[in-house]
Amino acid sequence: MLNYFPEEVLEHVFDFVTSHRDRNAVSLVCKSWYSVERFSREKVFIGNCYAVNPERVIARFPRVRSLTLKGKPHFADFNLVPPDWGGYVYPWIEAMAKHGINLEELRLKRMVVSDESLELLAKSFPNFKSLVLVSCEGFTTDGLAAIASNCRFLRELDLQENEVDDRKGQWLSCFPDSCTSLISLNFACLKGEVNAAALERLVARCPNLRSLRLNHAVPLDTLQKILTQAPQLNDLGTGSFVHDPDSETCGKLKNAMKKCKSIRSLSGFLDVNARCLPAVYPICTNLTSLNLSYAPGIYSNDLIKLICHCKKLERLWVCFFIKLIHYTYFFSGVPLSNQGLNWIMQILDTIGDKGLGAVASTCKELQELRVFPSDLYGVGNAGVTEEGLVAISAGCPKLNSILYFCQQMTNAALITVAKNCPNFIRFRLCTLNPTIPDAVTNLPLDEGFGAIVQSCKGLKRLSVSGLLTDQVFLYIGMYAEQLEMLSIAFAGDSDKGMLYVLNGCKKLKKLEIRDSPFGNVALLADVGKYETMRSLWMSSCEVTFGACKTLAEKMPRLNVEIINEGEEIEASPDDRHRVEKMYLYRTLVGPRRDAPDFVWTL
Amino acid sequence: MEGYSRKDEGCHQFLDLIPKQREWFVKREEEKTSNEEKKLELSLGPPGGDWTITDNNISQNTSRNKDHDEYLLSFGYFSNNPCSQNPVLRSPWPKHGLVPVMNESSQPRSNSIDVGLKSSEKKTFSPAPAANTAVPNISSAHKRTAPASVVGWPPIRSFRKNLASGSSSKLASESTDVAPNKVSDQKPTENCPKTLFVKINMDGIPIGRKVDLKAYDSYEKLSYAVDELFRGLLAAQSDSSGDEEGKVVGGLLDGNREYTLVYEDNEGDRMLVGDVPWHMFVSTVKRLRVLKSSELPTLSRGSKQGKQLSIDDSHK
Q1: Phi, psi dihedral angles at A108 (to 5 degrees)
Q2: I want to staple B75 with a disulfide (CB 3.0 to 4.6 A). Which of A34, A103, B47, B134 is the partner?
Q3: Which residues of A214-244 are buried (b: 16+ CB within 10 A; e: fewer)?
Q4: Most confidently modeled of A83-87, A470-474, B50-54?
Q5: E strands of A265-383, at which residues?
Q6: Is A167 touching B (CB cutoff 8 A)?
């Protein structure tokens, strides 16, 4: 009967199927559905740009309008992947231009984007509307100028945490007067100035502007003028938030804020005078998202005062900066006596924890929390401890996503957290000392994380740290049934640990391991598993060349890449030689052709 | 310290760790009311128990109170149940400031790093060198050490790390008067150097220090920094002279003595610190000196114009 179902109807039904996973599932039902689906798919998501190539994507989805691509492995964020590893977007843009794809949206993460790519993009797709670049690199403001000048219907230019070479040109001024379609503009990661007048005019002529995130170079008085022009904003990232708090400008800013009744998300504060913060109090009551993690100058006290106004917060990113750290840092060429230092650190931990206590009592709607380390360069690294986490878990029952950098942790705390918050989808804990045991019992933190995976049945992403044995992986394998991404560092005792995970976590997609004693036995036990996963990263583990070669031979549809840095490239390295960095991923298109010399695909 | 005007009323209090008779309190989260600001003040206390300082000003456990609203933080001592939500109460802050005595024997955390190292066989991770093994009895300090230098740990994006390092100098200064049209993307480095180190000597201490005046933006902060600088040296000095630990420290820094901060300006004159606005001071100061106040009989405290910076004031 299905054969007589008109395709138009199928297509219409498929319009309601939006997630790429669901569409992938739909396409597997039968040939007819596969065919209808592929011609109607407009949004394509490619989790690993080397798993497939542009030609095949275009061949299968000729009507693609929106492309999402991810490049480098996640650990590239932490300098574990050498530059020039790969992840170039140019071939994709080139191919789409050649095939006349009507590209409207391009979203890239951890890719290398050159100015040429941006120029080609800007000139090839007349309906191009949305460019989102996250953690990318390789371009300059000249490339942005090309986008601004040529994309007549640009709605979104969203640059998040990219490394951009600022050429001091006037890229923002390149938006023509006829550009009135902007809905979202985020240039917070840029380091250079933009012409304030051009910015104000741009904002004034884009009535649909909903999201605006400024960079460090935009001063407070420009912000004030912009807000007066754009009270309809939903999402605001301030630029520099430094001014004389008693000035007229600050007063005007506060008034402008009062009129911005739609702002739900606030970020920025890339440079801040805490005494100016009260200017934002008028919008705090309606905020659902607050990111203060870039703010170097907001100390815990002021932060707490601000947070106390934000009762509807659902998402919060913070650091707890503690001024005292800098006293100890700056005035002592030599650290304080141990006792003095230790005492101070414990106070500061408590300040951090109390700050979280303030969050716990105020933000009852909180769903996502990220607590970044307070001061990477101060002596001693005070921050928060397990107490803060427990307080949050007790006070915020809707919490489902957390990234928590802390000085120390205990099993008891984790067990309490697991009981209080069974809804975690993402749980990422990072102890600043990567192998620190339970602060009270000195035992490994196996039981604590075990409680988390057992209680949080919907857990999809987990990062573990602290002293951990194979036992924690036994728990993860046993209980973490929905787990898709697992990050391991300095953990485990033997191959068993990794085996528990590979055998147990049926939905695992990404596994990244560093500095853990997992070796060949674990790697080769179930080679078929890797085709069910997007990728596996192992660095500073115990796998050898020989094992990697064996794996590559057995699994032709995997690329097993070895990254050699600083070593001589031997023609045939010894099979027993330990591999420093290995990255393997499933692919339909074999070894990539753009790999640099130091990357070997076995 | 007397004579300071507080510019930012709201947030100064917890930052003032200069010893006075004030107490700092930490509020339990469950008991917060709408007076959150007041209740979020922090309190500091000396280590519990083993006070070897013979100072009867230390009142032990006067406000020790387990189930209450306000806590004093202890100096390195946590209760037998550190996982509990309440930091332990200890006696109030003594007048003479930091006393480096730790009641560490019941501190279970003390061996954390040691245990961690032994039980883990990770070759790549090595603990921070500042393990402070030289100091007896203070093994809990092991935990509070500089971060281990492991590549890519803690896992923070470079973007964030660059923020922190680039702005560490900004943290010390909260400029209140910034030109409205300041659009430069970096602090101007061509015209003014980022540091201004001057020598500082203290009476009775043969070895001087150096302080970076650009790290501060007020006399308050400088005073605290100077206090901390020499406290450590005084303690070290008394240690090496073989006196009983703690007792001598107390003797040198007890509340009856005072020190005054003076400076030598660009004309060679010795001046009292605190009379002129901060930025003017910074532009003329050449070196600093900490004198015993007994040598300055003619100075009166709380003078109308300026602020006298004294270290270890005792307020009767």
Answers
A1: -125, 145
A2: B47
A3: bbbbbbbbbbbbbbbbbeebbbbbbbbbbbb
A4: A470-474
A5: 265-267, 271-272, 289-291, 315-319, 368-372
A6: no
**A584 to chain B, minimum CA–CA distance in Å?**
20
Helix axes A115-124, A90-98, angle to 10 degrees: 20
Separation CA B216–CA B229 (nearest Å): 14
Separation of alpha carbons A242 and A239, rounded Å: 9
- For B63, the token pair is 């406000």
Q: Contact A287/A315 with Cβ under 8 angstroms?
A: no
Q: How far is B232 from chain A (nearest CA, A)?
A: 6
- ipTM more than 0.90? no
Pairing between β-strand B205-212 and β-strand A105-109 as defined by DSSP bridges: unpaired
Q: For residues A399 and A315, what is the distance between their CA atoms, to the nearest angstrom?
A: 9
Q: Rg of the Cα trace of chain A? A: 26
C-alpha closest to that of A522 among A504, A507, A532, A509: A504
Mean pLDDT of A426-452: 94
Nearest to A60 by CA among A588, A510, A590: A588
Angstrom distance (rounded) from CA B41 to CA B15 = 9
Contact call for residues A31 and A37 (beta carbons, < 8 A): no
Which of B26, B163, B211, B227 is the best mutation test for A, with the most CBs of A within 10 A?
Answer: B163
Three-class secondary structure of residue A119 per DSSP: helix
Cα-based distances in Å from A235 to A193, A217, A251, A261: 21, 19, 21, 11
Read off the pLDDT of residues A409-430 as tens digits, 9 standing for 90 and up.
Answer: 999 999 999 999 999 999 999 9
Amino acid at A255: N
Question: Which residues, 6+ apart, have CB-to-CB distance to B106 below 8 Å?
Answer: B77, B80
Listed by number, the residues of chain A in 256-285 with a beta carbon closer than 8 Å to a beta carbon of chain B are 270-271, 273-275
Contacts of B80 (CB under 8 A, 6+ apart): B106
CA-to-CA distance for B28 and B43, rounded, in angstroms? 12
Taking only the tens place, the pLDDT of each residue in A564-588 is 876 555 656 788 889 999 999 999 9
- CB-CB neighbors (< 8 A) of A219 in chain B: 178, 180-183
Cis amide prior to A556 (ω within 30 degrees)? no
What distance in Å separates the CA atoms of residue A205 and residue A253, rounded to the nearest whole number?
21
Number of neighbouring beta carbons within 10 Å of residue B111 = 17
Beta-sheet pairing, B26-27 with B70-71: antiparallel
Tell me if B185 and A324 make a contact (CB, 8 A cut-off): no
Bridge partners (DSSP) listed for residue B270 = B264
Torsion of CA A566, A568, A572, A576, to 10 degrees: -50
Which A positions 302-361 lie with beta carbon below 8 A of chain B?
A: 302, 304-305, 308, 321, 323-324, 326-343, 345-347, 350-351, 354, 357-358, 360-361
Cβ within 8 Å, pair B121-A327:
no
Q: Does the distance separating the beta carbons of B150 and A346 come in below 8 Å?
A: no
Phi, psi of A43 (to 5 degrees): -115, 120
* Nearest alpha carbon to residue A594 among A97, A162, A90: A90
Chain A CB contacts of B235 below 8 Å: 337
Smallest Cα distance from A242 to chain B, Å = 7
Per CB-CB distance under 8 Å, the chain A contacts of B117 are: 435
**How many A/B residue pairs have CB atoms within 8 Å?**
312
For B170-201, how does the pLDDT look when each residue is reduced to its tens digit (9 = 90+)? 333 333 333 333 333 333 333 456 678 888 88
